[in-house]
Amino acid sequence: MIPFVRELSFEYGRCDQVSPLIRRVIARNPGPFTYTGTGVYIVGRGEVAVIDPGPDLPEHFEALQAALAGERVTHVLVTHHHLDHSPLAHPLAALFGAKVLGRPAPRSHGEAAPGLEEGADDGFRPDVELADGDVINGSGWTLQAVTTPGHTSNHVCFTLKEENALFSGDHIMGWSTTVITPPDGDMGDYFASLAKVRARNFDTLWPTHGAPVREVGPFIDAYIAHRRAREAQILEALGAGFTSIPAMVPSLYAAVDPRLHPAAALSVLAHMNQLVKEGRVVAEGEGLNGHYHLA
Predict the structure, then answer these.
(1) Which residues contact 278 (CB under 8 A, 6 or more apart)?
(2) What confidence category does residue 150 fall into, taking pLDDT thresholds of 50, 70 and 90?
(3) CA distances to 78, 80, 221, 279, 281 from 193, in Å
(4) Residue-number span of the structural domain to which 260 is assigned
(5) How far apart are CA 190 and CA 124, in angstroms?
(6) What is the C-alpha separation between 25 and 247, in angstroms, rounded?
(7) Tens digits of residue pLDDT in 82-122
(8) What is the CATH number of the domain that holds 249?
(9) In this structure, are 127 and 247 located in the same domain?
(10) Helices 245-252 and 216-239: crossing angle, nearest 10°?
């Protein structure tokens, strides 16, 4: 079982000091993919970095401006291009004369993935494209980019050296597992990225949605174990004669909010694609309309 962390004390628009170097403002965009809403992190004092400015909501933009009054934003960082993370990046950066750093949205793969309320900011382009290991220095703080493809191909997390912490975006969340949505999301990449973060031995994870994760190693181990268990369930379903993903999802995700079943189907597809790559499953057709059999 994943030891989810779901307790969170907050008020929308309020700026809370959550660690010596970190403040957080939560946007009023709650939902099945965003939990209580997008948590925007402000790092430092006086000269600051802002991580995942969030959705384009006037009330939220005003709250960020109030939280940053009298300060200078030197960097605006974006973990990935979903609509609950990136839309305010350029407006906020323009207001303060800052640059937007991140990785560009991937080229469109065609039809949008169904059932994803968060949606994609397909036109997102940072001013500065980050590579793995790039360092961003500020007044009393040091951030480093850690590329973590899986949830999206352009996902990047950010370490905070002074607190041995990681701003984990949607890569690892305390309240829920992360949806992997092909064709941009990739399960093999996701497993590799989880292992990459696990090896760094962070003291705290700060997801964009929900509360921080303090017992980082055991939490990531449980995250990985959950994915492996889901993989085993898919193989078992194939062995029992299920050949289509839509037929599997209601039983595999019986305990999950039905609103999330379309997204769950995409996670099953991500597992299936990886199993096909590994030669453990044979596909007839592709995607959610394909039929699958044990190799």
Answers:
(1) none
(2) very high
(3) 17, 15, 13, 22, 23
(4) 225-294
(5) 22
(6) 41
(7) 999 999 999 999 999 999 999 999 976 544 454 454 688 88
(8) 1.10.10.10
(9) no
(10) 130
